[in-house]
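Hey all, sorry for the wall of text incoming. These are the three entities for the joint prediction.
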Amino acid sequence: MGSRSFLSRLREGDEIARLITLIFAAMVVLITLLLVYELWVNSTLARHKFGLSFFVTRVWDPVTDEYGALPFIYGTLVTSAVALFLAVPLGIGASIFLAELAPPRISDTLQFFIDLLAAVPSVIYGLLGIFIVVPLMRTVIYPALNKPLGFLPIFKGPSYGVGFLTAGIVLAIMVIPYIISVSREVLLSVPRDQREAALALGSTRWESTWKVVVPFAKTGIMGSIFLALARALGETMAVTMVIGNTPTISASLFSPGDSIASVIANQFTEATGDLYLQSLIGLGLVLFLLTFVINGLARLLIIVTTEKGSKVSN
Amino acid sequence: MPGPMRMSISKVNFYYGQKQILFDVSMGIADKRVTALIGPSGCGKSTLLRTLNRMHETVHSSRLEGEILLDQQNILAQDVTALRRRVGMVFQRPNPFPKSIFENVAYGPRVNGFKGSIGDIVEKSLRNAALWEEVKDHLHKSAYELSGGQQQRLCIARALAVDPEVLLLDEPCSALDPISTAKIEELLVDLKNLTTVAIVTHNMQQAARVSDFTAFLLTGQLIEFNPTPQLFTTPGDPRTEAYITGRFG
Amino acid sequence: MNARLRWRKLVSNFMLTMTGVCAFVCVSVLFLILGYLLFNGGTSVNWNFFTKLPAPVGEVGGGMANAIVGSAKLLLAASLFGVPVGFLGGIYLAEFSGTAVASVVRYAADLLNGVPSIVIGIFAYSLVVLPFKHFSTFAGAFALGLMMIPITLRSTEEFLGAVPRMLREGAMALGASKWKTISTVIVPAAYRGILTAILLALARVAGETAPLLFTAFGNRFWSNGWNNPTASLPVMIFTYAVSPYEDWHRQAWAAGLVLLGLILIINILARTILSRGIAVPRG
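and here's what came out:
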C-alpha cells in the first residue's frame, strides 16, 4: 500500500543515516586502535633487540646502533618536574585569586586571557624561549642561583643558556593555563556555605580559602595538575628549542639534555637504518603510554570531583 | 523588654543593591534566652539574622544602615573576624567540612589559637550538641558518613567549640527529618545555658516550643516583638494573628 | 584586637595579595609574548614576507610565501578529512547511539585528543609516508586532520545535545523522519556553535609543528599538488629560529607574529561568539 512503502522508505532513510554516521563514529575508534597498533608494530625491531633494558640503557649511539631510552626519559621527567614545581604554586595562586577574590566580570576577563595563552602554539613559546629565556638564563638566572647555591648538585656547573631548567621554565609557562582553568572552575563549584561556615567560626579570608575551600576542591586541583603534567610530558617544539639536545643525564639543572619528544623531533628524519628509526618509534610508544596513564588519572580525578560535589549536598 | 539584651538592633535598613529588604528594624536579642524570628518566605528574617554576624558582607552589593550592638558595642565598627568568633552561625543545610568529625569541631579552636587541650574542647562541644555518645568511638571518620541530623548537630558542636556569646541558627531543621528535628529542638532549649540563641524558623510550632521571645517579620518590617507565650496567645497585631492562625504564608 | 589576630590578618592580606600577583604575572605573559613578537617582528611583516619565496641559505631577504600557501593547503585538506569524521561521528553520538557505544567512542576521542602531537606525526608517517616512500602535503594534512577529529566530535555532540527538546519534538510531530529532523532542524539550530568549535580546532592545528616535521617535512620552493613535501609557517619558524642566521631570526619573528596574530584573532572571535550564547539555539 502507498502509506506502508512511504513509511518503510522513511525508515530506510533513517537507517542509512544511522549507518553512515555509525561508520564515521567507528572510524574514530578504529583510528585510535590503529595508532596504537602502528606504534607497536613499527617498533618491533627495537623491542625485540633491547627488550625492557631499553628503559634503563643510557647509551644512545646511532654509530654503533645501540639505543637506550634512559637519557630521554630522564630529560622528560626532569623538565616536567621543574615545570610543575614552578607552575603549580603560580597556577593555584592565580586560580584562587580568580575564583575567590576577583569580582565575576574581572575573573571572566582574566580567564579569557588565560584561555588565549593556552592557544599560543608551542613553536612560538620556543621562539621566545630561544631569544628571551636563554639569554635571561645566562645573564640573570644562572648567576643568581649558581653563585649562592652552586654547591647543591642541582645548581652545579656551567650554563650554556639552554638546558633542563630553561626547558622547565618554558614548559611551566605553557602548562599554567591548564592548571588555572580547571582549578578555577573547581574552586568556583565549592558550595558557598563551606566558605561561610569557616568565616562564621572567625576565620580570616585566607584561612577560609586555604583551610576549607581549597581542601574541598583538592581532588579537582590534583586533576588539573595531572593534566598539566600530561601536557608537559608530550610538549615537543618549545622543549626541543631550548633543552640543548644532548642525551645527558646530569643532576645539574643547568646541564643541556634531551627529552623523548625532542629527540624524536630532531632525529627522526635523519634516522638511517631500521633499528634507529624503530628505536625512535619505540620512544614514541613510551611517550604514548606515559601520557595515556597520566591523562587517565587526570580524568578520573576530575570525574571524582564532580561527583563529590553532588554527593555532599545530600 | 525584660532582661538584659545581649545584642540590640536599632533602626536597621538593609539593601541588596537598589532593592530594600529590611525597613527600620529595631529589636533586641535577650541574653541567655532563645529568640525566634518568624514570618512568611521572603520577609527578610534570614537577612536580618545574617546581619548579626555581618555575614551579609560576603555579598558585594549589600548595604546596611543603622546600628547593631553586641554588649553595647557597635559590631559594625569592630573587626569582623573577631566578631564572628563571638557570634556563631549554624546554616540551613548541614555543611561540615571535608574533614573528620574531630577535625571539624577542632577547626574553630585551632584557627583561633585556643590554648589547652583541643581534645577536651572537642569532647565538650560534642556533648553540648548531644552528639558525643554517637560519635565518640568514630571521631576520625569523615563527617560525611554521618546522617543529615547528625551532621547538623556536628555543625552545632563546631560552632560551640569557639565558645560564642551568641549562636545564630538559620532554619537549622528545614533539611531534616522529624526525628532529627525533635532532637535539635531539645538541644536548643539546653543551649540557653551556654549561650544566647537566635533562630530563624518557618515552623511556627517550633518557635512556640523552643523560644522565649519571638519576632514576627513581614515584607522586611518588624511587625511584633514579644515574649513567645504572649505573641502566640494574644498577638498584639492583626497581621501577626493572621500569620499564626495560618491565614497566609 | 589581640596580637595573634593582628598577625592572622596580616598573613591573610599578604597571601591574598600574593594570589593577585600570581594572577597578574600569568596574564601578563600573554601581553609579553605579543609585545615581543610585535617589537621583534613587526617591521618585518611586509610585502616581501607574504609574496617572496625563501632566499638561498645564508642569503639575506626573501619571504615565506610558500609557507603561507603551504599552511593554507594543509589546513584545507585537514579540515576536509577531520571535520566530516568528527561531525558525522558526533551526529551519531548525539542522535543515534546507545550509551555503551557512545562511551567507547567518546573515550577513543579523548584518548586521541591526549596523544602528543609528535606521536600523531609518527602515526601519520607510518601510514602515509612509509608506504609511498616520500613526504607529502597529504601526509601532513592527515596528521592535522586527525587532531581535529576529537574536538569536532565532542563539540558536535555537545551542541546537538543542547538543542531544546521542543524543537525536535515539534519536527517529529509533523511527521518528519529522524534524519529529516536532524538535517533540517537540529543541525541548523546547532550549526553556529559547531562551526565556531571547528574554527577553534583549526586555530589549534594551524600552530602545530611537530606532526609536520616528518609528514609534510618542508620545502624551499613551491609545492605542487598534494603529493610533494611542503613548507608551512610553523615549521619555517622552527627552522629559522634554530638556525645561525640573523636574517632568518628576523623572519622567524615576523612569521611568529603573523601566525600568532591569526590564531589569536580566530580564538577571540570564536570564544566571544560561544560565550555570548549566540551559538546556543533558543527554544
